[in-house]
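Researcher: We plan to redesign the surface later, but first we want a full-length starting point. Tokens attached.
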């Protein structure tokens, strides 16, 4: 570079340092992309822009990458360290001549230097991310150049990002494809396509004008027919029925606004720095890759708080991805939250479509239109927020519409991304506990929002873990080989296989959400403290037990997607004590213990299998490995159904062996030569605490199984009701604080599993006595004799009160 040209760039660089503050994606490109900073890079940018080049140079200086303005010299030949693919943002059929010329020169150098291996480093610089409206012909800010781009720097310089992509080896290209001009030209064209996909992933397709969108929906065959039916049934004119349809569209449809996203991002960036110590994000590279490959993404997170809506959009926006359209409950459509959420991409859905064919058809067509246009979607398959901290049984309505939309429109491939969202403090947790005890659900509104704002304080850390994606086409190919034959009939009727396929898919999603669980300071502290009868362990005991759980998570991880804090047990204890109510001795008040079960339940599935193994060893003192496997295999189906666990029955023997070896490594148990497992008296207290985690679940199973074995002719509805009543009584007598101990949902899941496992005849609900009594006998041996005696005493009273 000439001396005067360098001075020119340095002068231009001064205002850029003041006006532009770019976010790096990924946050640490050198570490995440494994870049060798000692080697030269050829920076590739999408189109000619000195502002983009200087923005890149500024960030390269901060993170320690080579200066793109310093030329690369090889064999006394100097070549630029950067290249622009196109002359202008809009591109043209012809590529920028300099780009092809530069690629050709670099490939030629690799041809004559066998040891040379320069890496291409693709870089995308974006100032602003407004997608624009479909009716507007002018290009959006992301396509500006020249003097317009200078104004964009002034206005959007603080809303910019630089995305670094994985490097490409010029040595590999030269070796596999050659070094002539044709290869250089192909390389430039591939880069152009690559950047086009990156822009789409970051900005998304253009947004529709609401009025035009509504008119298009009204012309669809499905809505036209249902409007006519509405007019006939209600005896109103077609125009009136259309007006009703438009009102419903107004109620449902989002009104996405880039400016609203920008303003909200500023507010959240400031406020969440005060509320949250850190937002931990894991495995997001999966989503970036899917977006890059042109997939249409459906985000399905766990649902524990109203914070979930905004949090995920905030995370995706800061990862350089377009925020999704979000299916939100109609209860959130109140002033001022409703209009704000609508501008942030929320579209509202009623709790029930029953009896309203016009509404259900409009919603289904609107959802199909979003997919057809290529927007990413987010919805909560659980339906509502979890009041217990566990995942809820999935509601499959919206998921079914997603599959139907895929069958109807030939759009991009649709991929579901399960997401685990975990908190160290959930704002609504006290309200959830009251609702589980019988209090009426608090209605969302302006004043409830103000009360929620008053509760804002130190909320600890939050975790967003992206699970293993599920490609819908691959899922259907594997489970419904002939699914493509249904495409022609989808407008007329639902495929026969749809309901069962959606149900299986929903459970697969829940399992993958749990696979991505994040252990944190509060939920680890909760699971340890609640394992103690009096909730008053010494500091040394707390540290010892947290360390036990950390070793289990690190040495025998639940899944590849689950995450464990990279801290010591002592550091985690200190962090938890700052967020949890306790006295100077570490005692947890009884009224707060019930709230702590919520956080324990977030990660209960991570430890329930180790806890069950520990319980079997503890109550038998000395037991054969085969007996442990037998008892686990009998009980596990109920745990799997309740906690959406990932292990298959055939995987249990290997998993149990690994767990036993780890418990022996921690000296909690002793393994003998003749395949016996015994207690280690020196470490019995940590083993007891580990075993206590599953105690309440086994007690709940014992309640239902005891009633079944005594009253085999009992009807299912009465069995569920009496089980809950008995559980409620026993929770008071035995001081059980778990919010879900007598929850209706867990008993319904238990009864469904009893049917699936053959303990109840599916047609007649007749009990298979021998199997039930055998299972009850095993479980009763694993809980305290006092609890069994209480069950028996109440059971006889219940038996006398049942109708004959």
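Model: Full-length starting sequence:
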């Amino acid at each position: 570079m000439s001396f005067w040209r360098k001075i020119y760039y340095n002068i231009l660089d001064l205002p850029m340092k003041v006006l532009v503050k770019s976010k790096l994606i990924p946050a640490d490109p050198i570490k995440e992309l494994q870049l060798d900073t000692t080697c030269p890079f050829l920076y590739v940018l999408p189109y000619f822009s000195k502002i983009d080049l200087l923005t890149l140079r500024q960030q390269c200086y901060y993170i320690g990458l080579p200066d793109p303005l310093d030329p690369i010299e090889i064999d006394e030949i100097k070549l630029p360290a950067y290249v622009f693919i196109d002359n202008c943002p809009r591109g043209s059929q012809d590529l920028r001549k300099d780009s092809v010329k530069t690629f050709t020169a670099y490939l030629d150098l690799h041809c004559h230097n066998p040891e040379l291996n320069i890496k291409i480093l693709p870089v995308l610089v974006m100032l602003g991310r407004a997608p624009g409206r479909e009716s507007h012909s002018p290009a959006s800010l992301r396509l500006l150049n020249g003097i317009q781009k200078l104004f964009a720097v002034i206005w959007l310089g603080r809303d910019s990002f630089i995305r670094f992509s994985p490097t490409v080896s010029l040595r590999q290209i030269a070796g596999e494809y050659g070094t002539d001009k044709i290869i250089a030209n192909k390389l430039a064209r591939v880069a152009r396509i690559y950047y086009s996909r990156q822009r789409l992933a970051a900005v998304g397709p253009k947004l529709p004008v609401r009025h035009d969108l509504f008119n298009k929906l009204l012309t669809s065959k499905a809505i036209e027919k249902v409007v006519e039916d509405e007019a006939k049934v209600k005896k109103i004119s077609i125009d009136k029925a259309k007006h009703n349809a438009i009102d419903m569209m107004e109620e449902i449809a989002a009104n996405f606004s880039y400016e609203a996203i920008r303003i909200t991002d500023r507010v959240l960036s400031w406020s969440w720095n005060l509320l949250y110590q850190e937002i931990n994000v894991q495995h997001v590279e999966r989503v970036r890759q899917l977006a890059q490959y042109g997939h249409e993404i459906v985000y399905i997170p766990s649902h524990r708080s109203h914070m979930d809506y905004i949090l995920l959009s905030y995370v995706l926006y800061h990862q350089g991805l377009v925020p999704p359209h979000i299916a939100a409950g109609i209860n959130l459509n109140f002033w001022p939250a409703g209009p704000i959420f609508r501008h942030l991409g929320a579209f509202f859905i009623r709790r029930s479509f029953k009896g309203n064919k016009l509404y259900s058809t409009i919603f289904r067509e609107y959802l199909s239109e979003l997919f057809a246009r290529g927007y990413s979607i987010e919805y909560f398959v659980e339906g509502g927020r979890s009041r217990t901290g566990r995942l809820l049984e999935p509601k499959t309505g919206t998921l079914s519409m997603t599959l139907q939309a895929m069958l109807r429109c030939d759009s991009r491939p649709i991929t579901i991304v399960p997401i685990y969202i975990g908190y160290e403090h959930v704002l609504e947790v006290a309200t959830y506990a009251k609702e589980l005890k019988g209090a009426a659900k608090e209605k969302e509104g302006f004043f409830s929002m103000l009360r929620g704002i008053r509760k804002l304080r130190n909320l600890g850390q939050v975790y967003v873990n992206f699970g293993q994606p599920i490609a819908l086409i691959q899922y259907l190919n594997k489970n419904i080989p002939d699914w493509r034959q249904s495409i022609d009939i989808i407008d007329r009727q639902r495929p026969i296989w749809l309901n069962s396929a959606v149900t299986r898919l929903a459970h697969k999603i829940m399992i993958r959400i749990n696979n991505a669980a994040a252990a944190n300071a509060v939920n680890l502290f909760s699971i340890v403290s609640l394992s103690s009868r009096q909730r008053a362990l010494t500091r040394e005991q707390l540290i010892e037990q947290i360390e036990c759980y950390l070793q289990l998570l690190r040495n025998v991880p639940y899944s590849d997607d689950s995450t464990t804090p990279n801290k010591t047990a002592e550091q985690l204890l200190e962090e938890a004590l700052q967020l949890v109510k306790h006295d100077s001795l570490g005692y947890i008040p009884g009224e707060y213990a019930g709230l702590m079960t919520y956080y324990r339940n977030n990660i209960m599935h991570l430890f329930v299998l180790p806890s069950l193994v520990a319980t079997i060893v503890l109550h038998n003192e000395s037991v054969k490995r085969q007996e442990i496997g037998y008892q686990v295999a009998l009980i596990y189906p109920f745990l799997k159904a309740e906690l959406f666990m990932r292990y298959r029955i055939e995987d249990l023997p290997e998993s149990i062996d690994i767990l036993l070896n780890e418990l022996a490594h921690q000296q909690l148990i002793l393994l003998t030569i003749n395949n016996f497992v015994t207690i280690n008296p020196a470490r019995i207290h940590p083993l007891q605490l580990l075993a206590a985690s599953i105690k309440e679940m086994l007690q709940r199973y014992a309640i239902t199984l005891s009633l079944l074995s005594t009253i085999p002719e009992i009807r299912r509805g009465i069995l569920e009701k009496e089980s809950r009543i008995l559980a409620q009584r026993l929770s008071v007598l035995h001081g059980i604080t778990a919010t879900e101990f007598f929850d209706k949902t867990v008993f319904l899941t238990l009864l469904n599993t009893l049917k699936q496992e053959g303990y109840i005849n599916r047609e007649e609900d007749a009990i298979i006595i021998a199997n039930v009594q055998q299972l009850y006998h095993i479980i009763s041996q694993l809980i305290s004799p006092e609890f069994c005696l209480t069950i028996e005493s109440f059971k006889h009273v219940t038996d006398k009160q049942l109708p004959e």
